[in-house]
Structure formats: structure tokens, C-alpha cells
Design brief:
The complex is a heterodimer of chains A (249) and B (306). With 249 residues, chain A is of the alpha/beta class. Helix content of chain A is 32%, strand content 25%. Chain A is built from eight helices and ten strands. In chain A, the strands form two sheets. In chain A, strands 6-7-8-3-9-10 form a six-stranded mixed sheet, with helices on both faces. In chain A, strands 2-1-4-5 form a four-stranded antiparallel sheet, with helices on one face. In chain A, α4 crosses α5 and α4 runs parallel beside α6. The longest helix of chain A is centred in the C-terminal third of the chain and has 16 residues. Chain B folds into two domains: 190 residues, no CATH class; 94 residues, Alpha-Beta Plaits (2-Layer Sandwich). Chain B is built from ten helices and four strands; from the N terminus they run αααβαβαβαβαααα. Classes of the chains: A alpha/beta (249), B alpha+beta (306).
């Protein structure tokens, strides 16, 4: 909760338990470059605390752009995007780390530090928050245990399989008990069996109360999970369904 | 619960200085080949710069020594009265451009001549018939002022003639001037090359770790949390890259002094070892260390904007 306080500013004491809406987009637009096309065009939606949401659509539909806006890798061209109730488009740069400490990120290409061990990768995410050595020593094996990698704690990332690397990615994402997990094509580089394992992992994290947002092409998984689906096409939301499927009804 | 500062310095220090040192050493070990290559480039570049500085300093010292040996000889008119000579001496001693005024009597001139010619003047009664003029031997504060001061002294009463090696001195000053300008230009050129080479090598070392920096940003690390270990790595690489050439230069210069002494090259009046090494260290250590830190800092800048 400390990081949320930092994120909101010293005068504002907000707890995620009190926040109903985790993400709120209002007429959100994003255009790359000056003369470029809109990657997102007048998009509006909101996501409640504890939801599991799939962002689906073909390549270039705007899924990844939307996730990048949520983690404030990009600033919106137009409209308002509120994360944890705060307009991230206006978030000063020095508050960015505190936003990101509340969002666990999982990437298609894992984005792990290859020269470090699985435990070191998870520990680093905790270290940046100023967690004590004792807390890190206690939490890292626990988190690696949750993703089934307790035996691989000391293995270097480059010695792990793709599926194991993504599990480390998930472990790192949940290490700081974030309010929300954002996963951009988390199964994009994995075989179907491993993909299902990773998605089950994300579902179990969601069942513990963490909001999970997943951008994916994986039709089978979306159809299997029957969660909320936001379908994007050419930067616009064309469908937003609870317990939806990839192609819609 | 720790308190985190607005700009994010505290997480680094709450984890302690040991975190920074630990991460720095781990970073150096993990990227040991790249770091060794970078340090190697710094060592070679600064060794070349240091060697050139040694040569340039000594060339400068030798030319200065040669220039300082240039003196003006003011021959006193043989008919000048004692009062005129005393007055001339006072004026010369009061002259602001002169640092040394020495009276040489005609007898002393004869003694010198006799010493120079050996036994050739044996039997010649110098006391009875000495044709040599008494003189003042003068050294100027600035060697380059010799011709102008000599010209001025010719007008003084009691002066028969002024000699300072007219023609030769102007050539000497021209040659030493060219040597110094060329030496300085080469050194500045080499220093600029060193700056570019070292900063680009350090930049390359940081760029190789762009992915690592970006990942740190994604997990919520503050810029300073990421920066500290990199700055310390840059500092260590730069400092090592400057310290090793200094050790090498110490031994090279010590050998050069011994070699000049053994070979009786007395005209090579080399500067003392401690003075030279101190002078070179004064430039190389801040240059290496500063470039290490600045190179790391500037190279990281754009990767931190994620």
C-alpha cells in the first residue's frame, strides 16, 4: 500500500480495497507520430477490482498499445485513462515507479535478466521497492513455490525452458502483491500445454483478488476461460462481453 | 515501513551501500569480458596520452632550459668613468626585465680566456696589457625579451656594445616556439581522441545492458536505484583504466632516466620522476574516472525514459 500512497501523493491515502474501479478509459485515443493512424480511437471502458479481462483482436488492433498506456510506457494522445483512480496521462515521471510497483507485468518475451537466477529476478522486483532482506528471503521461495519452480530457484534464466521462464515472469509479477497484473501475450511464445498452465496460474492469482488483464490472440484459451472479453478492431472497442468468447456470438 | 523520498533515492540507501557495491561487483563480474575490453581501451588510450604528456613535458623543459641559458653581455666603454659604471650597474639592477646582473672585470675575462685557450697565452702579462673590456652579464626574466632589452641597453651611457648572440637567439626561439605549439596541439588532439574513444566504449558497455535497464524500469525501479551501480561501475572502470597506465608510466620513465644517465646524455635534462608522475596523474586520473562516470550517466539517460 506504501507505493499507492507514493503514487497518489503524500496527502492522499488510498487503499486498493476501497477502490472499485481499477482502470477507467474515457474517450481514450492514441496516435503514433504526427501523421500516423490512430492505434486507439475513442475507447471507453472500465475495469473493476478483482476482474479477469481478455483484450482480444487481430495484430495491430490496439491491444498492446492499451496495455502500454496502462503501465504508462506511452501517454495517450487524447482522452482520459485512470489507473487506480488517477489519470496516468498526467502522472509525473518521478511517480512512475510507484505506479509500476502496483502492477505486475508479464510479457510475451518474458523480459527477464538472463544472467541472473530465477530467485534473483524475483528478488530484484522486491529489492527496488526497498523490501528488507528478511522479507525477500522469506517471500522469494514462497512465490517461486506458487508457480511450481521451488527447485529451480538457483537456475539461471538462460538454462530454463520457455514455460519455466514465463513462470518466473509470473512469480516476479506477483512478488510485491500487486493490485493488478497486466500480461501482454503471455502465451505467445509457448506451446498449447504450457500456455494453459500459465493461464491457469493467472486465473489462480485472480481468484485471490488480484485484477488480471491479458492481451492475447489465443482463441482456445479465451473460449475456455469464459471471462470478460473486450474485442478491439482498428483501435476501437467493438465488443465488451462478460463471460465472452473470442469470436463473439 | 520505510519512507521513500519523492525522487526515489531512499530505496537504494534503505537496502544500503552494500546493495550498490554488491550490484556493482556482480555487474562487473557478469559482464566481465565487456568491462575488461572497455577498461583495456581506457588503459591503452590513457597510456598513449600519458606517454605523450611525458615527452611533451620534457621537451618543454629542455627547450626552457636552453632558452634560459641565453644571456646578454653588456661591454662597458673603456673610457667610462667609475661613476658612470656604478650608475649603469644601478640602472641594470633596477631594470624590471632583468633577473640577474653580474659584473665581470677585464681581469676575470682574461682569466676565462686563459682557461679556455689552455697554455696558448703562457708568458702573456695580462695585468700589463689587457685589451678585454669589463662587462655586465645579464639574464632576463623572460628569455623571449632578450632582443628587445638588448636594444634598449645599447642606449645606456657607458655601454660600448651589447651582445646576445644576435640572429641565433631569434632562430632558437622560433624553433622552440614551433616545438611547443606542435606538442601542445598533438596533446590536445590526443586528449580529445581519448575522450571520444573512452566515452564511446563506456557507452557501448551500457548499451549492451539496455535490456537489463528497461526491465528494471518495468518492475518499478527508480532512476537512481538503477543508476548508482552503473555509475560506480563506470567509476571503477575509468579509475582502473587511469591507474594502470600511471604504474606503467612510472616504470617506463624510471628506465628512461637511468638510460639517459648510463649513456651520459647530459644534455637530456629530464624532469624528476615524482614531479612528472604527479603532473600526469593530475590529468589522467580525473579524466579516466570522470569519463567513466559521465559516459555511464549519459549513455543510460535515454534507456531510463521507459
Amino acid at each position: 500500500m506504501l507505493y499507492l500512497k507514493r503514487f497518489f501523493g503524500s496527502c492522499c491515502r488510498v487503499r486498493t480495497e476501497r477502490l472499485g474501479c481499477m482502470v477507467e478509459a474515457k474517450n481514450l485515443s492514441m496516435k503514433y507520430g504526427r501523421g500516423g493512424q490512430y492505434a486507439l480511437d475513442d475507447v471507453s471502458f472500465f475495469i473493476d477490482r478483482g476482474e479477469f479481462v481478455f483484450f482480444v483482436g487481430s495484430s495491430g488492433a490496439g491491444k498492446s498499445t492499451l496495455l502500454k498506456l496502462i503501465i504508462r510506457e506511452l501517454r495517450p494522445t487524447d482522452g482520459v485513462l485512470k489507473v487506480f483512480g488517477r489519470n496516468v496521462g498526467r502522472l509525473p515521471r518521478h511517480r512512475l515507479p510507484y505506479l509500476r510497483r502496483n502492477i505486475g507485468m508479464v510479457f510475451q518475451d518474458f523480459r527477464l535478466m538472463d544472467e541472473r537466477s530465477a530467485a534473483e529476478n524475483v528478488a530484484f522486483a522486491m529489492m527496488v521497492t526497498g523490501a528488507s532482506r528478511r522479507e525477500i528471503r522469506r517471500r522469494v521461495p514462497h512465490v517461486l513455490g506458487l508457480v511450481g519452480l521451488q527447485d529451480k530457484a538457483k537456475s539461471r534464466i538462460c538454462d530454463l525452458s520457455g514455460g519455466e521462464q514465463q513462470r518466473v515472469g509470473v512469480a516476479r509479477a506477483i512478488a510485491n502483491r500487486p493490485a493488478m497484473i497486466v500480461a501482454d501475450e503471455p502465451t505467445g511464445n509457448l506451446d498449447p500445454g504450457t500456455s494453459l498452465d500459465i493461464m491457469n496460474l493467472l486465473r489462480s492469482i485472480n481468484l485471490r483478488g488480484t485484477t488480471v488483464l491479458v492481451a492475447t490472440h489465443n482463441r482456445e484459451i479465451v473460449d475456455l476461460f469464459k471471462k470478460r472479453v473486450i474485442y478491439l478492431e482498428n483501435g476501437k472497442v467493438v465488443r465488451d462481453e462478460q463471460k465472452g468468447i473470442y469470436t463473439g456470438v | 515501513m520505510s519512507v521513500t523520498s519523492k525522487r526515489g533515492f531512499t530505496p537504494v540507501f534503505s537496502s544500503g551501500i552494500f546493495y550498490i557495491i554488491g550490484e556493482t561487483l556482480k555487474g562487473l563480474y557478469r559482464n566481465r569480458w565487456m568491462c575488461l575490453t572497455s577498461t583495456g581501451v581506457v588503459v591503452v588510450t590513457l597510456l598513449m596520452l600519458g606517454l605523450f604528456m611525458l615527452i611533451n613535458m620534457n621537451v618543454g623543459h629542455i627547450t626552457e632550459t636552453v632558452k634560459e641559458q641565453v644571456e646578454i653581455v653588456v661591454y662597458i666603454d673603456e673610457y667610462a668613468s667609475q661613476a658612470t659604471v656604478d650608475d649603469l650597474k644601478q640602472r641594470l639592477q633596477a631594470h624590471s626585465g632583468l633577473r640577474e646582473v653580474r659584473y665581470v672585470s677585464s681581469t676575470e675575462h682574461m682569466d676565462r680566456l686563459q682557461k679556455q685557450l689552455g697554455g696558448m697565452l703562457e708568458g702573456y702579462d695580462s695585468m700589463e696589457d689587457n685589451p678585454l673590456l669589463a662587462s655586465f652579464e645579464l639574464r632576463t626574466n623572460v628569455p623571449e625579451d632578450v632582443p628587445s632589452i638588448a636594444l634598449e641597453l645599447e642606449t645606456y651611457p657607458g655601454v660600448a656594445t651589447v651582445f646576445y648572440g644576435q640572429g641565433y637567439v631569434e632562430d632558437l626561439f622560433a624553433v622552440t616556439g614551433v616545438i611547443q605549439i606542435v606538442g601542445l596541439s598533438l596533446m590536445v588532439g590526443l586528449a580529445i581522441t581519448a575522450v571520444f574513444l573512452i566515452s564511446h566504449t563506456i557507452k557501448l558497455t551500457v548499451m549492451m545492458r539496455k535490456r537489463e535497464i528497461t526491465i528494471m524500469k518495468y518492475v518499478g525501479a527508480t532512476n537512481w536505484f538503477i543508476r548508482w551501480p552503473f555509475l560506480l561501475e563506470g567509476l571503477l572502470m575509468g579509475f582502473t583504466g587511469a591507474a594502470l597506465p600511471l604504474v606503467a608510466l612510472y616504470f617506463i620513465y624510471e628506465y628512461a632516466i637511468e638510460w639517459a644517465a648510463v649513456n651520459n646524455l647530459l644534455f637530456l635534462t629530464l624532469l624528476p620522476l615524482q614531479v612528472v608522475i604527479y603532473e600526469v596523474a593530475k590529468y589522467l586520473v580525473p579524466l579516466g574516472t570522470g569519463l567513466g562516470i559521465l559516459g555511464s550517466s549519459f549513455s543510460m539517460g535515454r534507456f531510463l525514459k521507459v
